[in-house]
Amino acid sequence: MLTLDIDPYTVVVSVFVILLTQQIIKQIGKSTIQEFLWLGYIHYGTKLNFSSQFTQLAQAKEQLHQLNKEKRTISAQDEYAKWTKLNRKCDKLTADIASLTEDISQSRASIDKLTGRLIMLSTTLPLWFFRIFSRKTHLFYFSSGIFPWYIERVLSLPFLPAGAVGLTIWMYAVNSVLSNVLFLISFAFAGKKVKPAKPEKKIVEEKSL
């Protein structure tokens, strides 16, 4: 299989940055990122007028509210023609609101899908690139005799000679360290936990006969 002659330092730094990004996304949560981008799309899209559906939906809901309010002030028997006209307008606005809501739901699904693809393109595909083309790159070396031979062999798995460290072991080590460090950081900033109170012992008094 084809391998590329990539500088080991480039591999080490690039893989570290990618794995760090992966761990941060994992801590934040993919759904949180999607929600943040969706809110940004709503905010800036409305300002720049390339997502006018939100404005149209708000206007349609306000008009429907006003029409329903007006309908309640008249009698369907005494002012049948006016009531019927208002009712037709309400039906049309209700259909418009349903259509706009469906369009917005589809836009949300598209944004979420695009976000997922961007996350994959930025974190998963680069790792596969390095796994394929840098799988035999020597990232680090150990002097002979520092570790027992079986540890040297494990550190060189799966493609390198004993005494060298390749991409597989480097990724495992980085992932382990990053996950532990980020866990400690998130734990430090987590809300204060309430210490559970000890259950009170019930004292049963024996009644003397």
Automatic annotation (TrEMBL):
GO terms for molecular function: protein-membrane adaptor activity. It is found in: Endoplasmic reticulum membrane; Golgi apparatus membrane. Residues 50-77 form a coiled coil. The keyword Coiled coil applies. InterPro entries: Get1, Get1_fungi, Helix_hairpin_bin_sf. Residues 182-209 are cytoplasmic. The keyword Membrane applies. Residues 1-11 are lumenal. GO terms for biological process: tail-anchored membrane protein insertion into ER membrane; vesicle-mediated transport. GO terms for cellular component: endoplasmic reticulum membrane; GET complex; Golgi membrane. Keywords: Coiled coil, Endoplasmic reticulum, ER-Golgi transport, Golgi apparatus, Membrane, Transmembrane, Transmembrane helix, Transport. The chain crosses the membrane at residues 114-133, 169-191. Its main location: endoplasmic reticulum. It comes from the Eukaryota. Component of the Golgi to ER traffic (GET) complex, which is composed of GET1, GET2 and GET3. Within the complex, GET1 and GET2 form a heterotetramer which is stabilized by phosphatidylinositol binding and which binds to the GET3 homodimer. Required for the post-translational delivery of tail-anchored (TA) proteins to the endoplasmic reticulum. Together with GET2, acts as a membrane receptor for soluble GET3, which recognizes and selectively binds the transmembrane domain of TA proteins in the cytosol. The GET complex cooperates with the HDEL receptor ERD2 to mediate the ATP-dependent retrieval of resident ER proteins that contain a C-terminal H-D-E-L retention signal from the Golgi to the ER. Belongs to the WRB/GET1 family. This is Golgi to ER traffic protein 1. It comes from Spathaspora passalidarum (strain NRRL Y-27907 / 11-Y1).
